[in-house]
């Protein structure tokens, strides 16, 4: 079917809907397969009309089309089956089981058997997995949420879930136009033709009387719209006078379309009025508000005028013997006062954030201070001049009890939360954060390196789409808009393509007018607030960047240069009252504000996503742009580069401290971006770094006030100290109940992906699970050191015990992996690999019988049915669980496999072995790309386990060996940094792991210490002594007790769990007042306050140089 025929179907669907032919609408939706009406589908599911639900679905997909379709039909039929059981209709349930659910048994025989066994129970809720099944209405609502996700993910429903944006009664309008044209072409047009049929073309029969006046003889005019429109004065906030209202009504009547009587919203008259009406016949009241002068877009904007085409243009020329006053333009001469060099196009540097960057904003006064929001809900404050992350705040609900019931319900399901907007207040004293679900957070920013919690507001039902600060009545306010369409904003945009102008009086919007693209739009003012711009994207992916005539609500100019259809809204920004920048097609495109054509573009040396987000600083000399690898780049012009260099630490400078802003302020003059470092000598033991001064100013000519300011600032800078936690009162600790078992060490430790539990594998092959209860003390139900969890077991009393038949437990190498949805755990302890159901603890299947034994397990990140299994004989098996088959065997190591890590960004699997080797494999072909040895420090043996873990950017990688921690760039397999045990942490490393946000590394040592390192620099930030978590009796005992493993909480960046060789498990968190483990150390090594810092080295050092 052609695209026009397809569009005709949509027009017919709209007509049937408007005429209330409900059954016909949904039948056509199904038969055409063009539009899946989610609302109708929801209604039928909620009503339990299962036959109609499946019948409607059958127009779009069949059971066996793909795994999404199969899951959709399974969920529906399962619900139908459970409802029959709940009504005690066993016969009906058997009928559903045999007739509807049997088809799924070929794919999962075990599940079908389990469903069949429900028939034997008096109440199916006795089954553990169904124990939380509520009433029918609630169950249907929960299922609907899952169904909607499956439908949206199903490729067969792509482009079928959104109805095209159409003006109301579009089909009627097209017929009206046709009849108007037919009437225009009549040889003898009558002023009041009688049109009685649409089956034949219209033609006026000749008359004996005088002919009606033709449109050509009329003065300046416009073609009438086919429907009547309310007089403009009716929309005014000031009511028109009676005379004006009467005149407006008369004008509206004169403007009736040719088929006004047939239109649903037209007057009763069916006669055709004159096809044109003079423009002067519509009076405008003198007190009309200027913003309402032209609520519809003028003909100068392409694509925005009804019925605009070449024939229409020709008719307009015939109707306009003289030009309209509104078409008169006054050309002005303008001198170009800018150059391309003013644009920040040079890449200064790239920073990695660890999660996709969703929003950025520069500080309004400190132009190198950048606020960054991420897809994992975290916000981070960067000092760009120092290339330093000053403070980071992972997403956390401050007080669940004050949140709405809807939001609390979302959190029960562990809904992911991302940042949708971060912004500074105009004075830079506050930070506002809008999240993808319900919340906004307000922080106070008293200094450049601190954010203090101020307000948490459950602002909207659904996502908070935007947030801004405003000063109505000289009072600082936050204005937001959200998915619930509650908008409290001066200028706001909506997904129906309307731009709305609001006032601060809670009386609703004053006017709305069409946004280009009629869909999602963002708006910005120029730096001086004098010019208004918007960038919108249509449902078809067309992007529109325009400037508005704000007083008239009309488009002033439309910028050209977009090439690619976009799946989202294009990000744009303004700079220096001269330039516009937009991120599109993996490029940054620039326009000069007064010219519609593209000025220039840059790809920022590559690595940008399809729709990068862009943001200028206030001076316009720096530009932040997001990257595809979860980071951002800073672009600069020459002035911006100088401002960044001015704040860089000198090459001889041993220390880095927070910027002392007072030190760069010259008496009686404003701060200048162009600054440079003072050339002076600083002793290595001095805690003070050289202070920047104004570039080009003679030091002897400075005012006497400045040295005093520098000295005052210096006095306040304290030398950095390593945070050492020696006592339990200095942090929060909880020991998991029933965990201590001296006969079984904790050899593997995992948090559940939902963050509500911990899973420990003992050296005896038994796995234990602890879950945290949801209560007043712990409203989130997540793991916390504030609450003691429950040792969880199913009612059957089963233990998750690995196959250890004929296995020497002393020699066995245990391994474990958890599925993404926490439903299954896979583990082995020298014997066969067992797959356990996490709800019932039953063994679902076993595979990979030794020899050789399995030593490491990792789920493929894109397919839970594919597992990479490291083996005792140094090989790696790529195993497909569904078909019980080894697809590939990878050989490249000399000893057993001790670590496996996937990177989807790089398309690789990295393996590590007891041979101290790293191998890189392609996950497409499973061919080996590279093999390198880790660099063992001099005098150390290359023995013991080597483990690998990817940073959240999927590029950097942590390599852990008892002799070292190392960071590698996996794209090149080059070592970036290395740390070796020394100083306060001299013992061998037993285990290490990234924190959930990849900003810290938690490492455990064989002397019982725990170290928290900065993940970027590998500098020790905090040391936790064993006296914190071990009792005095244990410390005095004969057996040395220390952690064998450490695990990081999946969402709490400062929470870790350690598994000890006495079988116990501890959870550690910093005190609530501290909130984090110590502070970032200075940038270089040396003596700080009498103590030597633990050093890290970069890749250009040799192992011999590491020993200091």
SSE inventory with pairings:
Elements: H1 3-18, H2 22-32, H3 38-47, H4 50-57, H5 67-86, H6 90-101, H7 109-117, H8 136-153, H9 170-184, E1 221-223, H10 242-254, E2 276-278, H11 310-319, E3 346-352, E4 357-362, E5 369-374, E6 379-383, E7 388-393, H12 405-412, E8 419-424, E9 430-435, E10 439-447, E11 450-458, E12 464-470, E13 477-482, E14 491-493, E15 498-502, E16 509-514, E17 520-525, E18 532-537, E19 543-549, E20 554-559, E21 571-575, E22 579-584, E23 587-592, E24 600-602, E25 614-616, E26 622-626, E27 631-636, H13 638-646, E28 675-676, E29 693-694, H14 705-716, E30 723-725, E31 731-735, E32 746-751, E33 757-762, E34 766-771, E35 790-792, E36 800-801, E37 814-818, E38 824-829, E39 833-837, E40 843-847, E41 854-860, E42 863-871, E43 875-880, E44 885-891, E45 897-903, E46 908-913, E47 917-922, E48 928-933, E49 947-950, E50 956-961, E51 964-969, E52 974-979, E53 989-994, E54 1000-1005, E55 1010-1014, E56 1020-1024, H15 1032-1036, E57 1043-1048, E58 1056-1060, E59 1065-1070, E60 1087-1088, E61 1091-1092, E62 1097-1098, H16 1103-1106
Parallel strand pairs: 30-56
Antiparallel strand pairs: 1-2, 3-27, 4-5, 5-6, 6-7, 8-9, 9-10, 10-11, 12-13, 14-15, 15-16, 17-18, 18-19, 19-20, 21-22, 22-23, 23-24, 25-26, 26-27, 28-29, 31-59, 32-33, 33-34, 34-35, 34-36, 37-38, 38-39, 39-40, 41-42, 42-43, 43-44, 45-46, 46-47, 47-48, 49-50, 50-51, 51-52, 52-62, 53-54, 54-55, ...
């Amino acid at each position: 079917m052609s695209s026009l025929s397809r569009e005709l179907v949509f027009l017919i669907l709209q007509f049937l809907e408007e005429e209330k032919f409900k059954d016909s609408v949904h039948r056509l939706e199904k038969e055409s397969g063009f539009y899946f009406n989610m609302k109708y589908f929801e209604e039928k599911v909620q009503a339990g009309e299962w036959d109609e639900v499946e019948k409607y679905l059958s127009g779009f997909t069949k059971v066996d089309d793909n795994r999404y379709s199969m899951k959709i039909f399974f969920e529906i039929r399962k619900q139908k089956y459970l409802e029959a059981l709940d009504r005690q209709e066993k016969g009906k349930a058997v009928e559903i089981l045999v007739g509807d659910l049997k088809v799924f048994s070929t794919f999962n025989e075990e599940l079908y058997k389990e469903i069949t066994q429900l028939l034997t129970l008096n109440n199916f809720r006795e089954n553990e997995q169904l124990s939380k099944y509520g009433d029918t209405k609630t169950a249907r609502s929960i299922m609907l949420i899952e169904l909607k996700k499956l439908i949206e993910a199903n490729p067969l429903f792509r482009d079928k879930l959104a109805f095209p944006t159409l003006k109301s009664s579009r089909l009627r309008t097209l017929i009206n136009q046709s009849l108007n044209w037919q009437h225009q072409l009549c040889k003898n047009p009558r002023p009041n033709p009688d049109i009685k049929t649409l089956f034949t073309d219209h033609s006026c029969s000749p008359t004996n009387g005088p002919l009606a006046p033709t449109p050509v003889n009329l003065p300046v005019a416009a073609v009438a719209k086919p429907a009547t429109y309310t007089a403009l004065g009716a929309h005014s906030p000031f009511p028109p006078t009676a005379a004006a209202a009467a005149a407006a009504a008369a004008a509206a009547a004169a403007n009736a379309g040719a088929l006004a009587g047939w239109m649903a919203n037209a007057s009763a008259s069916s006669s055709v009025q004159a096809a044109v009406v003079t423009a002067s016949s519509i009076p405008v009241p003198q007190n009309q508000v200027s913003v309402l002068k032209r609520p519809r877009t003028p003909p100068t904007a392409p694509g925005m005028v009804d019925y605009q085409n070449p024939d229409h243009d020709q008719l307009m020329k015939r109707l306009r013997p003289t030009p309209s006053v509104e078409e008169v333009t006054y050309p002005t001469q303008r001198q170009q006062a800018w150059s391309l060099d003013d644009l920040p196009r040079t890449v200064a540097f790239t920073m990695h954030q660890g999660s996709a960057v969703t929003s950025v904003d520069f500080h309004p006064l400190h132009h190198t201070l950048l606020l960054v929001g991420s897809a994992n809900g975290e916000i981070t404050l960067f000092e760009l001049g120092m290339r330093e992350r000053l403070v980071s705040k992972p997403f956390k609900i401050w007080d669940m009890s004050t949140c709405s019931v809807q939001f609390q319900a979302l959190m029960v399901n562990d809904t992911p939360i991302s940042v949708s907007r971060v912004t500074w207040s105009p004075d830079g004293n506050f930070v506002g954060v809008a999240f993808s679900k319900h919340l906004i957070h307000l922080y106070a920013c008293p200094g450049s390196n601190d954010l203090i919690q101020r307000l948490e507001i459950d602002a909207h039902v659904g996502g908070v789409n935007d947030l801004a600060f405003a000063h109505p009545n000289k009072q600082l306010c936050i204005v937001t808009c959200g998915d619930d369409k509650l908008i409290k904003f001066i200028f706001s945009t909506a997904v129906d393509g309307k731009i709305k102008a609001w006032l601060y009086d809670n009386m609703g919007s004053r006017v709305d007018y069409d946004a280009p693209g009629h869909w999602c739009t963002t708006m910005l003012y120029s730096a001086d607030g004098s010019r208004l711009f918007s960038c919108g994207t249509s449902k078809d992916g067309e992007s529109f960047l325009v400037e508005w005539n704000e007083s008239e609500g009309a488009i002033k100019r439309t910028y050209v240069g977009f090439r690619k259809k976009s799946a989202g809204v294009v990000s744009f920004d303004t700079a220096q009252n001269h330039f516009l920048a937009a991120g599109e097609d993996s490029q940054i495109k620039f326009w000069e504000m007064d010219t519609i054509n593209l000025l220039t573009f840059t790809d920022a040396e590559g690595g940008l996503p399809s729709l990068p987000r862009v943001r200028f600083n206030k001076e316009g000399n720096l530009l932040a742009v997001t990257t595809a690898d979860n980071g951002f780049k800073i672009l600069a012009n020459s002035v911006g580069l100088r401002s960044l260099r001015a704040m860089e630490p000198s090459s001889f400078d041993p220390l880095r401290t927070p910027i002392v802003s007072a030190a760069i302020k010259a008496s009686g003059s404003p701060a200048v971006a162009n600054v440079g470092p003072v050339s002076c000598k600083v002793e290595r033991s001095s805690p003070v770094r050289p202070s920047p001064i104004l570039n080009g100013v003679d030091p002897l000519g400075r005012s006497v006030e400045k040295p005093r300011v520098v000295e005052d600032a210096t006095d306040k800078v304290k030398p950095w100290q390593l945070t050492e936690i020696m006592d339990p009162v200095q942090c929060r600790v909880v020991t998991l109940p029933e965990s201590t078992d001296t006969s079984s060490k904790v050899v593997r430790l995992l948090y559940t992906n939902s963050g509500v539990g911990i899973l420990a594998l003992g050296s005896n092959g038994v796995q234990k699970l602890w879950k945290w209860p949801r209560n007043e003390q712990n409203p989130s139900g997540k793991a916390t050191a504030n609450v003691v969890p429950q040792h969880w077991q199913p009612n059957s009393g089963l233990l998750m015990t690995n196959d250890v038949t004929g296995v020497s437990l002393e020699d066995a190498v245990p391994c474990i992996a958890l599925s993404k949805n926490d439903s299954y755990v896979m583990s082995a302890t020298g014997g066969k690999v067992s797959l356990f159901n996490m709800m019932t603890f039953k063994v679902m299947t076993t595979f990979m019988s030794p020899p050789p034994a399995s030593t490491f397990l990792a789920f493929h990140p894109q397919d839970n049915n594919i597992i990479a299994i490291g083996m005792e004989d140094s090989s790696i098996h790529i195993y497909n669980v569904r078909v019980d088959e080894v697809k590939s065997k990878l050989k490249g190591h000399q000893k057993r496999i001790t670590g496996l890590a996937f990177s989807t960004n790089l398309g690789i699997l990295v393996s590590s072995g007891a041979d101290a080797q790293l191998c890189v494999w392609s996950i497409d072909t499973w061919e080996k790309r590279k093999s390198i040895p880790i660099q063992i420090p001099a005098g150390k043996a290359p023995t013991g386990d080597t483990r690998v873990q990817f940073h959240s950017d999927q590029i950097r990688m942590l390599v852990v060996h008892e002799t070292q921690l190392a960071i590698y760039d996996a794209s090149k397999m080059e070592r970036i940094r290395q740390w070796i045990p020394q100083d306060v942490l001299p013992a061998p490393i037993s285990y290490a792991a990234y924190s959930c946000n990849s900003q810290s590394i938690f490492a455990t040592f064989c002397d019982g210490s725990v170290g928290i390192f900065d993940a970027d620099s590998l500098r020790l930030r905090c040391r936790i002594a064993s006296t914190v978590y071990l009792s005095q009796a244990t410390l005095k005992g004969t057996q040395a007790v220390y952690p064998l493993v450490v695990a990081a909480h999946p969402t709490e960046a400062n929470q870790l769990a350690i598994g000890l060789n006495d079988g116990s498990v501890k959870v550690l968190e910093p005190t609530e007042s501290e909130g984090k483990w110590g502070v970032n150390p200075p940038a270089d090594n040396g003596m700080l306050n009498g103590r030597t810092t633990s050093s890290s080295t970069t890749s250009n050092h040799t192992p011999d140089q590491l020993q200091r």
